[in-house]
Amino acid sequence: ILCYKCVEACGDDAQNTSAIAIAGRGFDARVSTEQDVVLPESACVYCGNCIEVCPTGALAFSEEYALREAGEWAPERQTRTDTICSYCGVGCTLTLHVQDNRIVRVTSPHDQFVTRGNLCIKGRFGYQHVQKRDGES
Fold it and tell me: Whole-angstrom Cα distance, residue 64 to residue 105?
C-alpha cells in the first residue's frame, strides 16, 4: 500500500526531514528511507509521526506490536488521559493510552493547535521513565 501518508508526515506536512521517501518505480515502488539507506544512516529523528498517520497498521508502536503478537492488545480496556508534555516549554498535549496500568501508546489530538497530532521523540516515546516494567529494578 503506497498511500504516501508517512512520506507526507515526514516531509512537508509535519517533520520536514524527508527521511521517508518512495524508492523504485511502478510495481517496484516501495516506502523506504531517502537514498534507500538503513534507518540509522537516514535523516530520521524517530519522532513516530509516520506511525501516527499510518492507516493500515504497516507501521506500529513497538509496545502495541508486542501486545498484538501476544494476543493481549485490547483497545476496549484502554483508558485515555490528556496531559501536557514536561520535556520542554512548547506545551504539547499528550494523550496517554493506558492498558492494564501501563502506558502502551502516546498520541496527540489532531485538533490541538500546538501539535496538530505531531510530536517529537521525547513526547511520543519518552514515557518509559514513568513506569517500572516487569523484571526491571
Answer: 7
Distance CA 52, CA 61 (A): 9
**Consecutive 10-residue runs of the chain (137 residues): their mean pLDDT?**
82 78 85 84 86 84 90 94 88 91 89 84 83 63
Phi, psi dihedrals of residue 41, rounded to the nearest 5°: -95, 0
Contact present, 103 and 131 (Cβ < 8 Å): yes
Alpha helices (H) in 11-118, listed in sequence order? 49-53, 62-69
CA distance from start to end of the chain: 42
Measured CA to CA, the distance from residue 41 to residue 123 in angstroms comes to: 23
Question: What is each CA distance from 39 to 9, 46, 119, in whole angstroms?
Answer: 16, 9, 19
The cell for 51 is 506511525
Burial 71-90 (b: 16+ CB within 10 A, else e): eebeeeeeeeeeeebeeeee
How do 79-84 and 102-107 pair as beta strands? Answer: unpaired
Instruction: Report how far residue 128's alpha carbon sits from residue 39's, in angstroms, rounded to the nearest whole number.
Output: 22
